[in-house]
Amino acid sequence: MKSPYLIIICLLLAGRAYSQDVDILRQSETFQRQGKHRQFIYWNNPSDTAGLEYVATLSSKASAMGGKSLWEIWNHAGNRSVRLGSNVFICRSFTDSSDAKAELILDLYLASEAALSRNTEREEKNVVYLFGNKGKPMPVKVNGEEVDIPANSFLRYETPPGSTLKLSKGGITGASWTIQGEEGKAPVFLSVSGPGLGGAVPPAGSVGISINSGRITPMHPQFGRMLLQLQKK
What domain of life (predicted)? Predict the structure, then answer.
């Protein structure tokens, strides 16, 4: 049986490894936390600050144990946001170079219900965004026609009420996605990736490991909105 002290030490070290790359750069001296807010919402108009109370500015960096992808970096920042008592974020910058760790800097705020309603009203409706690879174009079929998602960029499609958008990637062992246009439908953010393990049905008699020829994966909408901002720059 493992020593309980060893288990506690391992948990403490693991917690430190995951938290040490999320730093508070600046923090409000007047903000009074009103419990934990599970929301971590992208604020889509930084010039509109009515109903926002500043909480803190975070730096979230890639780490060996905490993860190196932008999604993981953002997710760790979101966990810290919950503990600080904020519910919205403004993305200030993201740097990713071979010379330094990838770093995401976010301003955190507590938004009132009226402010959250304004933020929602400003959002696009009836659109689909497709994101591909960081380094090279990613092919995908849209309504039966193959197109390329540019490297480090995205494709945007409007889906008015009554329309249908059909996506496919990788044929039989790949993925397909159908989106129906509906009145006032929130934007959809999808990640398109190439061949990999899992996702396909393994052949009869195999050991259960399958290889897919492509995936289409839904993104967290708040992360998708931030990624859209970063790739528009």
Answer: Bacteria
